[in-house]
Structure formats: structure tokens, C-alpha cells
What we know:
The complex is a heterodimer of chains A (215) and B (335). Chain A has 215 residues and is mainly alpha-helical. Chain A has one domain. Chain A has ten helices and no strands. Chain A has helices at 6-11, 16-36, 44-73, 82-104, 109-118, 120-137, 141-147, 149-156, 159-173, 179-214. Chain B has a single domain, classed as Sulfite Oxidase, Chain A, domain 2. The longest helix of chain B is centred in the N-terminal third of the chain and has 12 residues, at 20-31. In chain B, strands 1, 4, 5, 8, 9, 10, 12 and 13 form an eight-stranded mixed sheet that branches. A five-stranded mixed sheet of chain B has the order 3-2-11-6-7. Chain B is globular. In chain B, 19% of the residues lie in helices and 22% in strands. In chain B, strand 2 (117-122) and strand 3 (128-131) form a beta hairpin. Chain B has helices spanning 13-16, 20-31, 37-40, 43-46, 75-78, 85-88, 103-107, 132-135, 165-172, 210-214, 266-270, 319-322, and strands at 68-69, 117-122, 128-131, 142-149, 154-164, 180-185, 205-209, 219-224, 227-228, 238-240, 253-259, 294-301, 307-311. Chain B has 335 residues and is of the alpha+beta class. At the A-B interface, helix 3 and helix 5 of A face strand 12 of B.
Amino acid sequence: MNKDTRPASFLTSAAAKPLVHAACLAPLVWLVWLGVDGRFGPNPAEFINRYTGDWAIRFLLIALAVTPLRGITGLAAVMRFRRMLGLYAFFYALLHVTSYVALDQYFAWAAIWRDILKRNYITVGMLALTILTALAVTSPKAMVKRMGGRNWQRLHRLVYVAAVATPIHFFMMRKGFQIEPLIYGAVAGLLLAWRAGAWIRARAQGRARAAARAA
Amino acid sequence: MIIRQRPLHRIRSCEITPKAAFDDRRRVLRALGLGGLAATMPAALTMGLPGRADAAWRPTQGKALSGTPHPRYNAKVLGEDPAPLEVVGSYNNFYEFGTGKGDPAENAGSLKTTPWTIKVEGAVEKPGTYDVDDLIRADDIEDRVYRFRCVEAWSMVVPWLGVPLAKIIRRLGPTSKARYVYFETLFDPDQMPGQRRPVLEWPYKEGLRLDEAMNPLTLFAVGVHGQVLPNQNGAPVRLIVPWKYGFKSIKSIVLMRFVEQQPPTSWSVANGREYGFYSNVNPDVSHPRWSQATEKKIGQNNIFGLPIRQPTLMFNGYEEEVAGLYAGMDLKKFY
């Protein structure tokens, strides 16, 4: 399994990573351009906050799609990009929260702290950010060695909590009944369901093998 | 507590503003013999009720519309600059045209505001279907600068043109059974594409207690910034209830029903824990999503070009005018 096939030759090429970086930074470049062009509207904080939040959740889901993509296509080379995609999710989440703290709240820390404790959607959002921060900090290879593969993996499974928390945060923030957060929620659900399926299959296989050995 | 009621008009419009253009229009109409038009109108329209004081007050969209400046509700007394028209007309919550702030300005072109009728029904002496051009009298239009506070913790100062709703209600003659007024927005997904999505239960519904509706502050707004309301702001006629959160000020009204029981309202049906019937601006009653202690003033920027943040005032600064309506009520319970 996971033998590199033809598309993988691009995925493993030296040009692939810079191109993916460029693609991941394109939304930020576009945001800056919109600002330069004066298209933020009368409430720039709200515009920037929503824009960066949209991209944070998109990159989180893209990063979470990497493992299922390998499982389904057998392209092992896509795994090269998983960490950087996850880090871009963190990057946009950080911009999202920074825009709230700086541009919306003007660093009114007491009010921000009250918001975190009191407003459920902010509590849930901050939980997701805390998880992404922990994962980003422990993302270098050296940290994997230092923590030990097992502990590292345990910690990084928290990304599943973030994957659930983020669409909930989005849904709670929107007023009325709105489709968009539900679509993100459905995608997150599919990506997690694929993992659950893979995990159940692997367990069943393990049992069958153990049974075969015992017999 | 003594609540002083100010007279709606201290000065009549004809006494202060030399409305040359206005009078000229009348003369032209008379000359053309259009004055006789009134005689041909259906009885319901001429029986003195909303009645046509003069020919249609409503110019086409984008054209100038004027009203008597209010001696108290003006920018000078308020001490704040109104948000410019580009801002008032580009930053809107009008989910009938999409949920983004810029969506209404982009999509509201499909709304057809002429002709426009409002159905009046329920506990009222003069029910009927009225053309908005008859319900509003040009002489009654006032220019009032109000604070407008959205539940989302932003606000704007807006120069509305409108008629005190009390004047219209008095002409319609609510009966003793009328304790509330219920309003509905137009329902027509072809004109309001946002209604194809179940964001809220359509049509949009709102309601006021009759005494709230009759409060001199409450307006039937038909214009803003010296022109007819842009579609995205709720053309051709919307409510303005400046001491309540913005969603109470229902837009593009087609129905007014006088009722005995407290009517359902769209947001309280969607989420009663977050949006109450009263929804008075109150910095002490925090909303589950937004602290209401402060607000961002859209259209009034700091040196970084960002809206300033200010403490929110009780009843949005109209405590003197409206606190009496809620004497003895627990405003934490009746939010």
C-alpha cells in the first residue's frame, strides 16, 4: 500500500511546498489587497474577523482531510503537507482572534475575559484556539522526539475536539438558522466519521489476526 | 417620576421653512387640474382618514425628500455627527436580502416599492388597505436625528425622515380592544431572495405595545439623509423605535394589525431566550452573545479609521421619554 504513483511525483517535487505555501497565503494577500483598496466596509473589525475565521475553519478541515485523502487514494506523499496545513489553520485562527482582541475590543482585557467566560460561542472558540496553539507549539519534529511518539500522538488527537468545536462556534455565532456553519459541520463530521470507520476496521482486522494466530 | 410629554410640533413646517419647491409643485398640480383627482378617489381614502392632504409625497428613489427639522432630535442637540448615507446604506441587517452586512445593498434592487399598500386590520375603526402614499401626509414628515442601536453591539446616528406613528394610529382609530400593534414585512421570495432560506420564519414579524407605538418617539420612517429610503434600509416605510434594539424597527411594512394579545415576533420565535418581546436597549441586561455595556459607533471613527467604542445608554439615551412606559416592570425579566 501507499506506493507513490504518478501524481505523487509532483507532490514529492521540490516545487510543491513553495506552491502550497503560496496558495495558503493567498487569502491573506487578498485580505491585504481589499484593505488597500478600501473594501472593508464601515466595520473593518467585523469584516476582517469573519474573513480570517472563515479561512481558519477551512484550513482546519483541509488539514483534517489529508489523512483520509491518503487512505482513499493511497498517495502517501500528501502527508508531507499535513503539518503545514494544520499550521496555516492555526495561523488564520490566530489572526481571527487577534482581530477580535485588537480591532474589535481595543485590548479591553477585562471585557475580553468576561466574554470568554460568559459567551458560550467565545468559550468554545477559545477552546479550539487553545488546542490549536498547543498543537502548533508541539509541531516541530524535535518536539515529537522530546515528548515521545505516543504522547505526541495523544496530544495531537485533540485536533478532533477542535474539529467539532470550530463549526459549533461558527453555528452559535450566527443568528437565526443559517446553512453555512452546518455545511462546515457536515464536512467535519464526514472527516471524523472516516477516521472512526478506519479505526473500527483496523481493530476488526487486528482481532481477526489475533484469532488466526490463536487458532 | 414625572414624564414630560413634548408637543410633537412646536413650530409648523410652513412657518419655518420656505418650501418654495414644495408650494410650486402644488401650484403646478392645481394648474393641471389634478386637485380634482381627490374627488375621484375611493371613499375610504377621502373620508378624512389617512386621507390625501395633497398629492403624493413620495418622489422617486434617490430624489430629495424633506421634513420639518425637529427642535430636539437633531444633530446639534445630540452633539454627534450622523453616519454618512454611504454607511447607512451599505451596512445593513435585512436578512430578506442575505445575511451579510453588504448583501442588502447588493440585492435589494429587486424590491418593488411602487405601488405599495399596507393592510390595516384588527381592533381598529378604519380597517382597510391603504396606499402608503395616502397613509403618509407630506406635512407630517419630520426630520429627526436618532441614535440607532443594533443588538449586535454596534450603533449609528441616523437622520430619519418620518411621521410619528401616533398620528397615523390616531387617524385609524384603534378600539378599546387594541392593546398591541402587530407588523409584518412583505413576503415575496421573488423580490426578497433571502426569504428562500429558512433563516427566520418568514414573513418578518414585529410588535409593539400600543402605548409604545403611540410614544412620540416612534416613527414610521420613509426617508433618510434627505431622500427616500433606499430599499436596503426598509423602503418604502419602516418602523423606527429608537430606544429598542434595531431588529424591533421592522422594515418594508405591509401589514398593521391591532390586537389584544402580545403578538409573536420573528426573533423571539427563533430564539426566545436571546430576544424578548420588549428588547429595550439596556446596558445592564447582557445578551447571551454580546455584552450590551458598550457599542461601536459605525460612522464615527478613531484615528486608526476604526469605529469608536462608547458606553451604551439606558434606553439608548431616551430614558426621559420612555422610562415611564415600563414603570414597575422588572426589565431583567421583560427583556
